[in-house]
Amino acid sequence: xxxxxxxxxxxxxxxxxxxxxxxxxxxxxxxxxxxxxxxxxxxxxxxxxxxxxxxxxxxxxxxxxxxxxxxxxxxxxxxxxxxxxxxxxxxxxxxxxxxxxxxxxxxxxxxxxxxxxxxxxxxxxxxxxxxxxxxxxxxxxxxxxxxxxxxxxxxxxxxxxxxxxxxxxxxxxxxxxxxxxxxxxxxxxxxxxxxxxxxxxxxxxxxxxxxxxxxxxxxxxxxxxxxxxxxxxxxxxxxxxxxxxxxxxxxxxxxxxxxxxxxxxxxxxxxxxxxxxxxxxxxxxxxxxxxxxxxxxxxxxxxxxxxxxxxxxxxxxxxxxxxxxxxxxxxxxxxxxxxxxxxxxxxxxxxxxxxxxxxxxxxxxxxxxxxxxxxxxxxxxxxxxxxxxxxxxxxxxxxxxxxxxxxxxxxxxxxxxxxxxxxxxxxxxxxxxxxxxxxxxxxxxxxxxxxxxxxxxxxxxxxxxxxxxxxxxxxxxxxxxxxxxxxxxxxxxxxxxxxxxxxxxxxxxxxxxxxxxxxxxxxxxxxxxxxxxxxxxxxxxxxxxxxxxxxxxxxxxxxxxxxxxxxxxxxxxxxxxxxxxxxxxxxxxxxxxxxxxxxxxxxxxxxxxxxxxxxxxxxxxxxxxxxxxxxxxxxxxxxxxxxxxxxxxxxxxxxxxxxxxxxxxxxxxxxxxxxxxxx
Length: 679
Ligand code: ADP
Ligand code: MG
Prior knowledge:
Blueprint: H1 16-24, H2 30-34, E1 40-43, E2 58-74, E3 77-86, E4 89-96, E5 110-116, E6 118-120, E7 122-126, E8 129-133, E9 143-146, H3 155-167, H4 178-183, H5 189-197, H6 202-231, H7 245-253, H8 260-274, E10 280-285, H9 291-304, E11 308-312, H10 316-330, E12 337-340, H11 346-357, E13 363-366, E14 380-385, H12 393-400, E15 407-412, H13 418-424, E16 429-433, E17 444-448, H14 453-465, E18 469-473, H15 481-497, E19 505-508, H16 514-525, E20 531-534, E21 547-553, H17 560-567, E22 578-582, H18 588-599, H19 603-620, H20 639-654, H21 660-677
Parallel strand pairs: 4-7, 10-15, 10-16, 11-13, 11-14, 12-13, 14-15, 17-22, 18-20, 18-21, 19-20, 21-22
Antiparallel strand pairs: 1-9, 2-3, 2-5, 3-4, 5-8, 6-7
Helix pairs in contact: 5-6, 6-20, 6-21, 7-9, 8-9
Bound molecules: adenosine-5'-diphosphate and magnesium ion.
């Protein structure tokens, strides 16, 4: 008797070699096969005839193969042309450099074609998905599942396997609590699996999809909320006292007053710190909204209460900058700061670690060097992580473990859209700084083509002649430091010899030694350098209020959120700032996307667009973002179901009715790693 966990090889027709091919798709067991959801469906009961096809739409139709030709246009370019037709007309199918597809098409075969219909004299589809229909194929005349295929795994084979599994009546247990299934009018689990692969009607298919999306999001929310409530077990954390002299003195000496948003955030943070439950708070505020000072005030509070603080930043440049900002702020208070980055010598590191262990450093600032084993605090009371989205979830967890349930503050300038915040940070409390400090002028952003470079750089000159400073950001070539560096060097040399002749320019990129980076940044801070050619190493944090101009070359290579971060380096002082995006590629989609930047300075608006355009994985740009792999739900588009699932999860947790079985499911689904990652 087969069950959910049986190896897929136990199914008929799956020998060792097929099993290996299926395994490449992640299909090793019957359960994994069942959870291999179709990528889309074809309603064969509604197939159009060729005459009914709509140009510009993705369409599915059935036809006969009429002719097959391969043309070798020139070296490296061959075109495969397949003419298919029915009683009402013909369509030309075209592939470039895919001659191997040729053997699939025999004249007279019946095929089902899917693709975007175009018209160029004749109807035409480029790169169509084509399935050859044989007599006796399964599921004929129904709504058909279409799966993503792997090497040597055909649609028909997957459909056969699914059919076999359902014929075997494999038991699929309900895992959601009965009340939740009833209350949310969900389809039963076993039924949902059947109809997602083998939908009898469109309506049943929709119910099946909804049920499985709900299940996935519900489990995720239960897991996240559980972690959160576990963290809130009483009396286990550091309990800070109310504000003392130090906190008051710093506030008095600040050269500005805090904005309403900063004050509200600070109030949240102080309340959390004064509570015995460990703080787990995310401070979100657009670039330039003034998060650093909030972190500084929280760090003073912990020192004032006799604890040590840690402040972790994602880059050396930023860590150094924080060190200098805090050193200035804390100088009158006698607070002792340490700076720990990867580029300190062994001896320096040992010295810092020693001072830290013995309590002679009050606040340690640094990069992820902070989470190395040798770093031990005497009594860590507060951990702050800046630009938290740049760290892996486990990196942030490791810093916390250096204390006994210290308070934790995460800061991020990547405004995380609400749906993502609920999913990734479902376990955190959130404070939001919505407004920038007063007196900032909105950055004016322009989108231009490379033919305008002469005029653009002339404008850069006038800014510099007026005493301002500028950044030129090099296009991101690929995920390789080395190649990006070469490109940066090249651009620097080109500009310095051409458009920017006789201007004091510096070049900064990831391959420089820390001391070289320091020297260049210092020269830029002090306005000895007027212009900085840079890679994305300046993306986060860098704060030079006199810089009012940024040119981003090859802007199409960046995500919108990243462009917004980069642009956040200017507009930090009282002078008008300008950002010019140079698009080297002029496809309409590219220009459309970049136009968002010229229309908005609001990080939230931009992030929402970015997320929609690129999806959550790329949005964070790293596998370490802590997002679980979702098989069917889409946290961007399934907001309604997400909110419904979240509220069901909240009720369940609230009534403490998480059953043993559900607990087991959570562990199986997310693994112990997930719990650790989110802790
Ligand atoms: P971010 O939130 O991007 O980290 P920073 O903390 O670097 O922003 O702050 C940006 C700049 O704004 C800094 O120069 C800081 O001194 C200044 N700043 C912060 N808060 C205020 C305020 N309330 N009024 C005026 N300037 C402020
Ligand atoms: Mg910052």
